[in-house]
Specification:
Strand content: 15-25%
Shape: globular
Radius of gyration: 20 Å
Number of strands: 7
């Protein structure tokens, strides 16, 4: 009987430790090579515990630069997305990545469009 109580206590403590470990704000050591952006975001999710929401079509064939040092999730995301035309922000309990390109952006410069 005491074994069951001990097992339940251990499982309860482990469950709380996992819940408190979600999305750390602390700087942690990271070291990632140049890699596909989708792989980088998965690695950041695993290492920081932070969920990252992104539409897969935004990532395409984007590459993330090499990254190393003791960084927060925010710093790691900033460095990983630098120069990619993607931006990020924290929404409720997770990071969300969106495009900096507006829906009304057009490949033809506005000065070439004739007002009819």
């Amino acid at each position: 009987m005491s074994f069951r109580v001990l097992a339940i206590l251990v499982l309860t403590l482990i469950g709380h430790a996992v819940a408190f470990g979600a999305c750390t704000r602390d700087a942690i050591p990271m070291s990632f090579p140049i890699q596909q952006m989708d792989e980088r975001l998965q690695d950041l999710t695993h290492s920081t515990g932070c969920f990252i929401q992104v539409e897969p079509n935004l990532l395409g064939n984007l590459k993330a630069p090499a990254l190393s040092g003791k960084l927060t999730a925010k710093q790691a995301l900033r460095q990983s997305l630098k120069g990619s035309r993607l931006k990020f922000h924290f929404v409720k309990d997770h990071w969300q990545i969106t495009s900096t390109r507006r829906a009304d952006d057009h490949p033809i410069h506005d000065s070439f469009v004739q007002p009819w």
